[in-house]
Amino acid sequence: MSLPQPPISREQLEALPPETQALIVSIINHYEQRLAELRAELAALKKTPRNSSLPPSTEHPHAKPPRDKKKSKKKRGGQRSHRKHERALIPAEQCSKVVPLHPENCRRCGTRLKGEDSQPLRHQVWELPEIQPIVIEYQRHRRTCSCCGESTCAPLPAGVPTGQSGPRLVAFVGLLMGHFRQSKRRAAFFLQDFLGMPCCPSLTVKMQNLVAAALEQPYEELRKSLGDAKQANLDESPTKQGKQKAWLWAAVTAQAAVFAIFGSRKAEALPKLLGDAFNGVINCDRAKMYWRAKRLQWCWAHLKRDFQALIDHQDPQVKRLGHDLMRQVRLMFDTWWRYKADKISWRAFRREMAPIRERINQLLLRGACSGHARLVGMCNELYDHREWLWTFVEVQGIEPTNNTAERALRPAVIYRKLSFGTQSAAGSRFIERMLTVSETCRLQSRSIFGYLTAALAAHFHRQPAPSLLPGA
Fold first, then answer.
1. 435 and 252 Cβ atoms separated by less than 8 Å
2. Is the pLDDT of residue 38 over 70?
3. CA–CA dist 426, 254 (Å, integer)
4. 102 vs 75, 113, 314, CA distance in Å?
5. How far apart are CA 437 and CA 42, in angstroms?
6. Cβ–Cβ contacts within 10 Å for residue 366, how many?
7. Contacts (Cβ under 8 Å, ≥6 apart) of 268
8. pLDDT above 90 as % of the chain
9. pLDDT tens for residues 396-418?
10. Which of 217, 221, 239, 405 could be cross-linked to 233 through a Cys-Cys bond (beta carbons 3.0 to 4.6 Å apart)?
11. For residue 263, what is the DSSP state?
């Protein structure tokens, strides 16, 4: 885009005195130069995942800057000197079938061979079994009383569902939709084509409601346990419920994750998720709805991206402060990872962090007093709440970043992009409970399918589902 033509023709300009002509030309040149500077500054201020909270998926792969690392001259794949990796053989006793192979004749002279090899070469082939659905028919006979004439029909045994889907089948469909992010139509197609079971999308909805009902009690039990957590990593992402905008919240501890869908992003959602008695530390970004909590740990991964945005700025004053802050942040993370690797003790970690902490606070104060519009607001906020930057130095066991919650929320964000949210409150309950089970079982190294099957079997027996609490 170029500057508009000046409201004076060349003939009119040439008719003016030379001094006036020179003044007008210098004004035009000045604003053309200023426009070019503003264009360059606007290009530098473009938000990317490296200098803002934008997710990496928003940036096209071809738009990423070139890596500083030089391209290797080696070919792709395994190198000649690399150690071979292959699947370990399982014991022969665990194989479905063992086929002994004996050579009949000598490969050189043709003489007939006899005897046994004490250590034969073992070769194992893995294969899927032919899938044949298990269908159990219950024939409920009716008998008539010879005394009073009343007829009585035999009831179904305990644990037999009144519908046509057993606990393993319902758990499998719930896993397809809630964990592997398949639509109801695709889940029905999988059952029909691969498993040979008649199914339609409406039946998967019924199974979804069964899963949600079976998980209600362990979900609520796990959510209430968050009130006793020492630390909770929180994050949220927009979603939809029907035509209404909603928010998916995630609260992640060391061995549990709870997801909940609320209609608001406001601070009122915090006690609904964590309970009124929560006294632990919340790891989060700098969103203001978290400020109501008693103790926070602001995420240094977010802050690092904010400081990178200062480095990308055109103004030398802003750029310099960004470089000074980033230098201290790198020292901070280097100290943190040495502590996490048990290379230094907790006391040594705090001792080494003291000058880094003091220097960053000084730099934030410098930015707050700089008078520069780009620096004053951000640095004022960080300096005024600097105690929320250093909770991980004061309390042992607290992480300096909120990466745990962001990693847990990522599958939910992918699900939202595929499904565009849920269509009803019942669908929201299914999603939040399935996400909770999926991530919690992963954190506890438990089988998700095994837990779902046990929960549904207990539901059909009208018994409490297995607990999701750590160590239960």
1. no
2. yes
3. 29
4. 41, 9, 77
5. 45
6. 16
7. none
8. 64
9. 999 999 999 999 999 888 888 88
10. 405
11. S
The ranges assigned to domains in the chain are 300-394
Q: CA end-to-end span of the chain, whole Å?
A: 66
Q: What whole-number distance in Å separates Cα of residue 269 and Cα of residue 272?
A: 5
91-137 residue pLDDT tens: 999 999 999 999 999 999 999 999 889 999 999 999 988 888 899 99
> Can you tell me the distance from the alpha carbon of 77 to that of 289, in angstroms, rounded to the nearest whole number?
48
Cα–Cα distance measured from residue 271 to residue 354, given in angstroms and rounded to the nearest whole number: 34
User: Residue 420: which region, alpha, beta or left (left: phi > 0; alpha: psi -120 to 50)?
Assistant: left
- Per DSSP (E only), the strands in 109-230 are 142-144, 151-153
CA distance 379 to 324: 13
For tokens 């943190």, the residue is 336
- pLDDT, tens digit, 9 for 90 and up, residues 144-160: 998 998 999 999 999 99
Q: How far is CA 153 from CA 134, 138, 159, 164, 301, in A?
A: 25, 12, 18, 19, 66
Q: Which residue has the tokens 């040495």?
A: 338
The Cα 450–Cα 174 span in angstroms is: 12
> Which distant-in-sequence residues (6+ apart) come within 8 Å of 171 by Cβ?
211, 449, 452, 453, 455, 456
Q: DSSP character for 280?
A: S
Question: Identity (one letter) of the amino acid at 372?
Answer: H
> How many other C-beta atoms can be found within 10 angstroms of the C-beta atom of residue 285?
18
**What's the confidence (pLDDT) of residue 1?**
45
* Torsion from C-alpha of 354, 282, 284, 264, nearest 10 degrees: -160
Q: Is it the case that residue 43 has pLDDT exceeding 70?
A: no
CA–CA separation, 430 and 420 (whole Å)? 15
- The Cβ of residue 116 has, within 10 Å, a number of other Cβ atoms equal to 7
Report the Cα 74 to chain-centroid distance in Å.
Answer: 34
Round to whole Å and give the CA distance between 187 and 195.
11
**C-beta of residue 253 within 8 angstroms of C-beta of residue 280:** no
DSSP string computed for 289-316: GGGGSS-EEE-HHHHHHHHHHHHT-SSH
Question: Which of the 8 DSSP states describes residue 226?
Answer: G
**Helices and strands (DSSP H and E) totals, the chain:** 14, 7
Backbone angles phi, psi at 73, to 5 degrees: -85, -5
Other Cβ atoms closer than 10 A to 284: 23
